Amino acid sequence: xxxxxxxxxxxxxxxxxxxxxxxxxxxxxxxxxxxxxxxxxxxxxxxxxxxxxxxxxxxxxxxxxxxxxxxxxxxxxxxxxxxxxxxxxxxxxxxxxxxxxxxxxxxxxxxxxxxxxxxxxxxxxxxxx
Length: 129
Prior knowledge:
Layout: H1 2-21, E1 31-34, H2 36-45, E2 49-54, E3 60-66, E4 80-84, E5 87-88, H3 92-104, E6 109-116, E7 119-126
């Protein structure tokens, strides 16, 4: 019974996260492209991170970014990553797992979606070689 309830709850979280990751009726507010040189610099410095973002009712929203604003690539501290490579990412762990899966598959660009307030933006990170 407990396992069934946890499975149902996990399914509900995934469904809610997918709904939040979907662009609003007006579509994306634009695309943010981050060049490989800035991605490499952030990886080298290890000065960018994320925390789990939740709604007031506790619903997972995604991964709230911190430290990205200083790179002036279009991302802002507080942006929430809600999707990576077409998969809803309601937590930091989900975001990292999906990004690692894509990178391991050899992609050279990582696509995603962020929420900034009520706006949704598409994001493309060019991965360093």
